[in-house]
């Protein structure tokens, strides 16, 4: 696992817990550290990475005991934090990278937070899309602002780099990487609330395809699923394709489904129409939003990041004190 939070490097042997995340300096200057080469199909990140830390070398995390208080907790921090993490994937046969957003006051609350996995797109002819796409479109800024003004609950956001698991291929191992490697990694090293009601997954374009694929194969792991201008079709690789998966999927009627796109997005409108019609023919409900403006562009998705966060977090508590206590890391539930 590798990690850099904000502009300050964490030293080897640290879990990402409220107790040991360092206080960030007041400036935005980047701390320069030696960097080991990381095999990646994406351009170098502006967030520096360090060599992976073997799980066996990590020291146990002490129990976190929040200080009792007679008044409701009020967060005085005004910024969230972004870090770059990775692990050696046995399924993708390479280092799998992902970006983490932590809400203000994560370090001091001693609580377990709900978390959202957001997958990037793959738009031909556009800029390279990887784990920084949602970041540069302002998803993390919207999460922070919403928490500070009381319109959104606090949450952790995970932004995987699907390119490190052949995100563009219809037979990619990305679904297995997400469920069998990424989620256990997250839940073993972050203070996450590890229940389906406190997890959500979504993505844009090709990422929407994969978000629905993960959810339809493992409907017990999440409660809310979103696709933002998702790419759907009836075709090959039926074991991964959500259009075909819905035919025999068990218990997907328990999922709360959301799909949106802009009225001028002719890359996906036909496929989405067929997908929604098939869902409804099977008696499955889906919230479909066709916005009056927008095409298959980052400008469209950036304009709606707050809408997306409101959907995913609709059932999550705004009161940090209502979240479970993070007594110890390493008690993660194992996804099926």
List the topology elements.
Elements: E1 2-5, E2 8-9, E3 81-89, E4 94-102, H1 106-109, E5 115-119, H2 133-136, H3 139-149, E6 156-160, H4 174-189, E7 199-204, H5 206-217, E8 224-228, H6 242-245, E9 256-262, H7 269-281, E10 287-291, H8 298-303, H9 305-312
Parallel strand pairs: 5-6, 5-7, 7-8, 8-9, 9-10
Antiparallel strand pairs: 1-2, 1-3, 3-4, 4-6
Question: Which descriptors apply to this entry?
Answer:
ten-stranded mixed β-sheet, single chain, alpha/beta, 17% strand, 336 residues, disordered N terminus, disordered C terminus
H/E element order:
EEEEHEHHEHEHEHEHEHH
Strands, total number: 10
Main sheet specs: 10 strands, mixed
Average residue-wise pLDDT = 79
- Count of alpha and pi helical runs: 9
Which structural class do you get from the secondary structure elements? alpha/beta
As a percent range, the share of strand residues is: 15-25%
Helix content: 10-25%
Radius of gyration: 19 Å
The 3D shape can be described as globular
With strands numbered from the N-terminus, the spatial order across the biggest sheet is 2-1-3-4-6-5-7-8-9-10
* Unreliable spans: 1-62, 330-336
């Amino acid at each position: 696992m590798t990690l850099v939070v904000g502009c300050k490097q964490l030293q080897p042997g640290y879990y990402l817990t409220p107790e040991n995340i360092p206080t960030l300096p007041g400036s935005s200057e980047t701390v320069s550290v030696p960097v080991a080469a990381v095999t990646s199909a994406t351009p170098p990140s502006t967030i520096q990475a360090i060599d992976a830390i073997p799980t066996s070398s990590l020291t146990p995390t002490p129990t976190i005991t929040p200080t009792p208080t007679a008044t409701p907790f009020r967060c005085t921090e005004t910024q969230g934090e972004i870090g770059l993490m990775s692990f050696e994937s046995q399924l993708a046969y390479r280092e799998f990278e992902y970006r983490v957003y932590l809400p203000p006051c994560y370090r001091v609350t001693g609580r377990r937070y709900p978390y959202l996995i957001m997958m990037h797109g793959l738009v031909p002819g556009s800029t390279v899309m990887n784990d920084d796409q949602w970041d540069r479109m302002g998803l993390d800024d919207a999460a922070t602002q919403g928490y500070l003004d009381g319109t959104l609950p606090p949450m952790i956001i995970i932004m995987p780099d699907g390119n490190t698991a052949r995100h563009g291929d219809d037979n990619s191992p990305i679904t297995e990487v997400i469920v069998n490697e990424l989620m256990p990694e997250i839940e073993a090293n972050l203070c996450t609330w590890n229940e389906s009601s406190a997890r959500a997954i979504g993505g844009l374009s090709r990422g929407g395809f994969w978000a629905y694929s993960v959810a339809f194969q493992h409907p017990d792991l999440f409660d809310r699923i979103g696709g933002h201008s998702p790419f759907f079709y009836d075709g090959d690789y039926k074991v991964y394709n959500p259009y075909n998966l819905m035919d025999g999927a068990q218990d997907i009627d328990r999922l709360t489904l959301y799909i949106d796109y802009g009225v001028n997005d002719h890359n996906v409108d036909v496929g989405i129409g067929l997908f929604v019609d098939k869902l409804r023919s099977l008696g499955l409900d889906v919230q479909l939003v066709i916005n009056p403006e927008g095409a298959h562009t980052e400008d469209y998705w950036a304009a709606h990041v707050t809408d997306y966060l409101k959907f995913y977090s609709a059932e999550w508590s705004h009161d940090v004190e209502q979240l479970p206590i993070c007594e110890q890391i390493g008690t993660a539930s194992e996804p099926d």
